[in-house]
Amino acid sequence: MMRRKLALLAAAAAMALGTNAALAQTKVLKFVSWQKDERGVGDWWASVIKAFEESHPGVKIEWTKVERGAYADTMTTLFAGGTPPDIVHLASFEFQKFADTGWLQPLDPYIKDSKLDLKGWAGQDTCVWKGETVCTMMLYFGYFMAYNDDILKKEGLSVPKTYAEFLAAARKTTKDLNGDGIVDQFGTGHETRGGGGQYLSEMMNYTLDAGGRWTDENGKVTINTPQMIEGLTRWKTVVKDSLTPRDMSAGEVRQLFADGRIAMKFDGPWLWPIIQKGKAKDQIKTAMVPFNPPVGGSSNVLAIPADISNDNKKLVWDFIKIATSDPFQTTYATLGASPPPSPRADITAAKKENPNFDLLVEATKAASNAKVDRIPKGLEIQFNEFSKMIMEEAQRMIIQDLEPKAVAATMQQKAEALQQQ
Amino acid sequence: MKSGFSLDLARPSRRHWLGYLLLAPAVLLIGLIILYPLIVSVDLSFQNVNLARLDQPRRPFTTANYERLFASPDFWNASWVTFKLVVIVSFFCFLLGLGTALLVNNRFRGRTLARLLVALPWAVPEVIAVVIFAWLFDSSFGLMNWIFIKLGLIDTTVNWFSSPGAAFFVVCVTMIWKGYPFVSIMMLAGLQSIPEDFYNAARVDGANAWQRLVNITIPSLMPVLGVTLVLVMLWVFRDFSIIYVLTGGGPLKATQSLSIMTYEQAFGFFRMGYASAIGVVTLIVCVIASRLMMGRAPDNI
């Protein structure tokens, strides 16, 4: 009996030792992302991880989801505590602070050694910080228009092609359908509650079409211009006249549109999967936005932290190489349902699967050709403060019924002050 | 053989050492969890730091964060918003908490269920409560707008989160709903500890219900009231999730409390030094307010 017990103990000890040895041999790379459970793009990341683990026996990727709302806090805390994730996934409006603090590894030597061709890579210019490439762009998008064909037809409207046509259509389709005194169908839908970044993007539909830009090519603030004043006037009209539901987050507005309560919506490629799950799926059609140029911009980036070991840096670079390889850029188009940043990606399959893919590509190209980005040049580091300031001043304009001209002057002054900080 | 150093805890003069030894792990843990971050935060507030890192060399000492803070209209606005929230929410929490406690302290059929209902909001997680209230007060499809229109109180929908006054009102209502059950539970415990003899004696003396409330109930509840008031005030002072999820501090900073401002500066604008300065000032205000409240409590007993 005693002998059997001893044998069992020995076996257990051997197993424990074996497991420990196996654990010791397995290297774990930490990867934190907000896109883990996202339909489509989350599946694409999973496929990249699988391919990496298969090509690197003994190396595992520990993939953790952190909600977008808590992402900046979590990443800042991880970096500040000296334990950054090995694979750094950041939004394209937040990586600059990390790069500026010296937390991101310059990638130019890796790009050169591995001969990674980033020519024509959409949005890659954004990843150059103080003359060094610190990340690779994973998505650059352009806004397209989705519209509810039934709602437009019911009002005898055709698809708007200009701002004036859009405004007329939005006014005609904003309605109290059941006569209870509450508007239950809206001409368009914008996020008017939430973060400054999204608010800025929503406003840009109108400011870009009016010819306005936050800053010029040299980073000089150009808000107090007739074009921007016209853009602000348009934004004020749409929000103040309640042509969009008020105080809603971007997700809520998208869902309302997908359920047939909004006539026209301007958004990026991520809107398509939401439409597919909505009640009005069969009534929704797509077109180019009635604005020129469309809103566009860089979305998210991959980077390597400066503080991890050289061995881990090499492994993370291998991960980036897989993610940016032609085959995976091709599957990004199909799984992510978005135009990939790589100009070499084969999008034939994506076109077959998604009838709007050509439109998405066209919208992305239009935004890219017009050099549109949500992050204004010269205000990259101050982007969060800048977007918050723009949102507050725009809200003040609507709430206190201020003249757009005066608001543009205030915005200009505050943006310049931010730049000088 | 005699060792060089021995700790004889059995000796009467050293018995108290055992107490210190047993307390040491807890004290160390508290020091690590509470004191260390506090010291780091105070230290950061005197440095010009954006993204802070513990292993980075200390930046030169500066009082610039405090100078900027006290010159900032945003800080004074946040202080005013916090003060208004503390006063309004604490007052109504007490009014409702005491009222419901007096109600469920009576004997009636269904008292257990009534007590459960009174305590229910306390059990609901803050974020869920906020989601419920966000829907109730939704500007386009919310229940409150529908009810007010049906009752003829308004003829057009109220944009609850686009109007500074309305947004502040919604935040207050949510915080009161979430906070009053705690007061109610504390008051109920206090009420049950008041001897019935006091009331019987007062009845014999001809005291009516109001006189019994003012002369017996309230004074007897004072010790509980003092502690509860401090706890509620501190909760309102530091509460973050209700305001953050409902309004994010907006519109036009109408609901931006000191805790929201601290978070925004630290994790929105990555100004850790400045955010630490706000945190330190908030802490000092909390300590002074608590001390004043607790200091008054013994006089009232």
Itemize the secondary structure elements and their pairings:
The complex is a heterodimer of chains A (421) and B (301).
Chain A: H1 2-25, E1 27-33, H2 41-55, E2 59-65, H3 71-80, E3 88-91, H4 95-100, H5 108-114, E4 128-129, E5 132-133, E6 136-137, E7 140-142, E8 144-148, H6 149-154, H7 163-173, E9 186-188, H8 196-209, H9 226-240, H10 250-258, E10 262-267, H11 271-276, E11 284-287, E12 296-298, E13 300-303, H12 310-323, H13 326-335, H14 348-353, H15 357-369, H16 383-399, H17 404-420
Parallel strand pairs in A: 1-2, 9-10
Antiparallel strand pairs in A: 3-13, 4-5, 6-13, 7-12, 8-10, 8-11
Helix pairs in contact in A: 2-12, 2-13, 8-9, 8-16, 9-16, 9-17, 16-17
Chain B: H1 15-45, H2 64-71, H3 73-105, H4 111-123, H5 126-136, H6 143-150, H7 164-192, H8 196-204, H9 209-238, H10 241-246, H11 258-268, H12 272-300
Helix pairs in contact in B: 1-12, 2-12, 3-4, 3-7, 3-9, 4-7, 7-9, 9-12, 11-12
Query: Please, how many helices of chain A?
Result: 17
Structural class of chain A: alpha+beta
Strand residues, percent of chain A: 5-15%
Helix and strand content put the structural class of chain B at mainly alpha
Kindly identify the CATH topology of the largest domain in chain A: D-Maltodextrin-Binding Protein, domain 2
Could you say which overall geometry of chain B the principal axes of the C-alpha atoms support? flat
Shape by Cα distribution of chain A = globular
What are the secondary-structure elements of chain A, in order, as H or E?
HEHEHEHHEEEEEHHEHHHEHEEEHHHHHH
Write down the domain tally of chain A.
Answer: 2
Overall CATH architecture of the largest domain in chain A: 3-Layer(aba) Sandwich
Oligomer: heterodimer
| Topology, number of strands of chain A | 13
Which architecture of chain B would the CATH scheme give at its second level?
Orthogonal Bundle
Strand percent estimate of chain B? under 5%
Query: Largest sheet of chain A, if any?
Result: 4 strands, mixed
In CATH's first tier, which class of the largest domain in chain A applies?
A: Alpha Beta
CATH superfamily of chain B: MetI-like
Q: Helical content of chain B, roughly?
A: over 70%
- According to CATH, what is the topology of chain B? MetI-like fold
